[in-house]
Amino acid sequence: MANLETGFAGIITPNPFWLASAPPTNTGYQVMNAFRAGWGGAVWKTLGVPIVNVSSRYSAVAYKNNRMMGLNNIELITDRSLETNLKEMKEVKKKFPKNALIASMMFEKKEEWHDCIKRCEDIGIDGFELNYGCPHGVCERGMGSAVGQNPDVCERITSWVTDVATKPVIVKLTPNVTDITKPALAAQRGGANAVSLINTINSVTGVNLETMAPNPTVAGHSTHGGYCGPAVKPIALNMLAELTNHPDFKLPISGIGGIETWQDAVEYFLMGATTVQVCTAVMHYGFRIATDLNAGVSNYLDANKMKSVIELKGIAAKKLRKWQELDLNYKVIAHIDPVKCISCQLCYIACEDGAHQSIELLPNTRVPKIIEDTCVGCNLCSLVCPVESCITMVEVKTNKKKLVWADHPANQSN
Amino acid sequence: MKRNSKLEDLNKKFEKIKPQMTPSEAVVESSRCLFCHDAPCIIACPTSIDIPMFIRQIMTKNTLGSAKTIFSQNILGKSCGQVCPTSVLCEGACVYHDLNEKPIDIGRLQAYATGHAIDKNIHFFEKGKSTGKKVAIIGAGPAGLACAHELTMLGHKVVVYEANKKAGGLNMYGVAPYKFSNKDAIQELKYVSAIGFEIKTNSPIENPSKLEKEFDAIFLGAGLGGSKKINIPGEDLSGVYGATEFIYNLRDKDLKVNVGKNVVVIGGGNTAIDAAVESSLLGASVTVIYRRSEKEQTAYSFEVEHAKKHDVKFVYLTSPIEILGKKKVDGLKCIKNKLKSSSRKSEINTVKDSQFVIPCDMVIIARGQEKMIDFFKSISKLKLDDGKVVVNKDFQTTNPKYFAGGDCINGGKEVVNAVANGRDAARGIDKYLMKKK
User: Fold this and answer.
1) In a mutagenesis test of the B interface, which of A64, A65, A344 is the best target, namely the one with the most B β-carbons within 10 Å?
2) Within the 31-90 window of chain A, which residues sit less than 8 Å (CB to CB) from chain B?
3) Nearest CA in chain A to B98
4) Which domains does chain B have, with CATH numbers?
5) Residue B410 host element (H or E)
6) Contacts B27 to A, Cβ<8 Å
7) Which residue from B63, B68, B31, B64 is spatially nearest to B50, judged by alpha carbons?
8) How far does A363 lie from chain B, in Å, by closest CA?
9) Residue A134 annotated to the active site
10) Distance between CA atoms of B129 and B90, rounded to whole angstroms?
11) Rounded Cα gap, residues B58 and B52, in angstroms
């Protein structure tokens, strides 16, 4: 059986599932409950200069019956005193010495950083995470994403921390940048031991049609917030792979963004993450989801005859190419299984109105037919089909050698 | 006091079998719809309601838009949502069956959206610009009301003649009250007729030709007559009822009717089932006898299941030969049958020496309804086929001034078929009247 114990930047954790720095890690009470439920580690709600939070704080995007497909928050870092937080962190570490306890921090001045690092190390925490990602409330004061968006500042502040910290330092990156590799490389230059990504994305989740105000509201007004939850996973996976595949980037990565199931976690590992962090799914369903995260990943490793999560690392990321490197002579066309077809004809109308008019309806049957001569193999019909594996994309042997854009006759630069 | 609590109990027993959905139920259920292209449910609906569209509109909380989508095809969309045998129509055609998933609850969604507009008294259609033409409608049932509504939209002046004291036809006097109550029927009638056509109740028309002078066209939506007799001894004993009359009485008296202790219902159709379940809900012990086997029964299987849930017993391959009793019924003498072949219309042979008696104090005969042949024969040049009025694709009869729809042309189908006929006949009448100009 696979062993889920994982080493991350020198931190040993019983499993790769950590709680991200967020409301679920606000108190010792919560973190201890989480560890009892099977979480391997927790990144404490960000410690920093005193702040005050607003009411209300969250808003969400629902899709049909699915609530909270995306979640947005305008909450800031911890609103409790540093003393209270340190006292509870110490208790947690004492009761759960094997679980990873990470202190998330966000300060303005070098002395503040240094003071907090010392006090955290004194109580025995396992590492630090520098919050360079928070996109609201604190960036206006030159912290959070204001740091993550400026590689020079990112590097400088990271080095303030790494100069004095004896425990591993993780830099948490904001996705609100054009090129994620720049702040990541800056963190590496600043001496960071790892990065975590992504923090939340700038967003307005929607507008209330009755009050005509954006969500969420505070006394009738709103502000942009940080977006997370299942909806952000595709964005996070892309950024994760960009770092995984960057030749100069060498640090381990803790993946964050929309992880809810063991399948999500495996995808993160395959795209290059060593550990993952979860927040929204816990805010939705509670700590108990750890049971299936652990069991699901363990079974997947067993099924693939692997001993540890580290064996998954980056396998899928290596299969990413630039568009220009894809084979233009490869061809697939859609195939409809008439036995599985339930005749909803969604594939027909999707192709007819939204793609290449390559599905036709014939008299005396409700099963649509692929027009193979014009089908471009775009996948759309198989994506809209509500029946599992009813429409499959079948490779057509072209008997042509691989041809990439650089060598293609239509390429005018040739 | 005591009587009121008894009535409350009765109303509870007759509770809707398809209760009104809550807004959250409706949103969850509507979200399941796949929004099929050229959807099979639309094809299965006699009134061709754009079902995926109205369901999508419920999902987007555009409930009024949804109601309009329904009403523009079927102005009696509320009652149809509640009384249609949806499992053999729209819901029976739902593609989810092929996925072994529960079909979309179309009937209840339809009742939800239309009920929303009716409760809020929001109307979507107006009386058309007057054409100066007048149309008489005989029968204020589903066919007549749908026809009247459509004709009024088209600008024709309409008078509906109804023999009963209340308009509504089947929805008022025929449908089982646990599907559609008197309150529902009155509310829907008020909503539909608000467009502005006249209904004259207590106005039986004995000779339609007398209306010919005053009106430019006449629509026959007269439905069917009373229950058929079965011509066995004892049929005139006290305690013997026709099913149609029994149900009429139940609806007319708003459930306050007496029922026997032991009731035998004769017949295998949906009306037999309704009468049986209603008797059971009123407190009787009920047996249904049917001359053929369960396989040949014309009642929908979901109706038979519903009856079994209400402890209705079924005795198949059994025919009545005599109703026993002096003044009042005290038993039904029956004989066992065997079928000569497995065909649906197989010859029935009786089994020798197989007579037996079912003790009972009430017999309900549900062997179909009479056709109103004498009434239709009073109209000149009106062709009948097996008692049914013959119409063309515009629902015009062989007498060009007369149009017809509903049970009197199809021999007795669903409310939704009558609505479709009435609506389309109105368009046929409009074509006839406006061409003449």
Assistant:
1) A344
2) 64-65
3) A342
4) 16-119 (1.10.1060.10), 134-225+371-436 (3.50.50.60), 240-365 (3.50.50.60)
5) helix B407-410
6) 65
7) B68
8) 13
9) yes
10) 35
11) 10
Assess contact for B279 and B310: CB atoms under 8 A: no
Cβ–Cβ contact A343 with B under 8 A: yes
| CB-based contacts of B74, cutoff 8 Å, min separation 6 | B47, B49, B80, B146, B416, B419, B420, B423
Q: Which of A134, A228, A381, A385 is flagged as catalytic?
A: A134
Say how far apart CA B330 and CA B305 lie, in whole Å. Answer: 28
Nearest to B31 among A65, A345, A386 (CB): A65
Q: Region A294-308: what's the mean pLDDT?
A: 97
Per-residue pLDDT band at B437 (split at 50, 70, 90): very low
- Using alpha carbons, select from A390, A22, A386, A9 the residue that is nearest to residue A200: A22
Predicted confidence (pLDDT) per residue in B99-111, tens digit: 999 999 999 999 9
* Confidence band, pLDDT 50/70/90 cuts, at residue B5: low
| Element containing residue B152 per DSSP (H, E) | helix B142-153
The answer, for B59 touching chain A at a CB cutoff of 8 Å, is yes
- Cα B312 to Cα B299: distance, rounded to the nearest angstrom: 14
Radius of gyration of chain B (CA): 23
CB B219 within 8 Å of CB B144: yes
Q: How confident is the model at residue B4 (pLDDT cuts 50, 70, 90)?
A: low
What the block records as the tokens of A36 is 């009892």
User: Region A66-80: what's the mean pLDDT?
Assistant: 94
- Other C-beta atoms closer than 10 Å to the C-beta of B198 total 13
- Give the ipTM of the model, two decimals please: 0.85
Domains, chain A: 6-319 (3.20.20.70), 323-407 (3.30.70.20)
A50 burial level (CB within 10 Å; 0-12, 13-18, 19+): exposed
Query: B160-182: per-residue pLDDT in tens?
Result: 999 999 999 999 999 999 999 99
Cβ pair A361:B31 closer than 8 A: no
In this prediction, residues A106-129 reach a mean pLDDT of 95
Say which DSSP state A3 is in.
-
Cβ–Cβ of A346/B32 closer than 8 Å?
Answer: no
**How large is the average pLDDT for residues B299-328?**
96
Main-chain phi, psi angles of A187, to 5 degrees: -60, -40
- In the block, tokens 């467009």 appear at B195
Residues of B within 8 A of A357 (CB-CB) are none
